Amino acid sequence: MADVLRVVPYEQSHFRTYSPVLASILLDTCSFTESVLKSSMDNARYNGIANIANLRAKRYAAAPPYLNINDLRTTFRADTLYTRKVWLLSRGEPSRPWYTWRQANVQHPSWWKAYNAAKHDRFGNAKHATLSHTLHALKGAFLCMVLSLEFRDRLVERAIVRCRGLPVNALKPIAAQWEPLPTQEAVVATTSLLGFKFYSQGSPDQAVDTSPFY
To answer: Do residues 210 and 87 touch, judged by C-beta distance below 8 A?
Structure first.
């Protein structure tokens, strides 16, 4: 995606630009998001969700009904993904990729609809794989990954989840917990494109600028 953005800058006049490259990124990204969420469902945090045993079983069903995006919303909406901001660091600009989940029975993000369209007819629906949809899909996947406890150790080791005031060995047990993280320091997750700020005891609010990411 970084290569795409070097050729097609992320600005409003380019939001509807689409290409086979973007279609490939969109399909891979949303498939990855599904895998992350399916894996995360096993955490004890979700044991109190209504019908969670049935929802978990649907992941491995050999026949319908299969797990779908509505089931994932039922499981993960309590994590308030819809409130969380992901920053496009090159522009110092935040957005909420899961914002449409703020209500229990509304439609899913437009980038998820674009994914479904491209998945079912990659050539006929190529126009849905736009720059805007693809980048928001990446933000959605990034958010799911950094909030999932299953990935935290590896993300700390790879300096994707990091903290200026804490070395890796000190950050690992802190990052392994649900928010607010038990530290007075600001803990962030960054890639070359995206940034996210965790809630912590010393930094309870979302970042209002990009300074925590550098």
So the answer is: yes
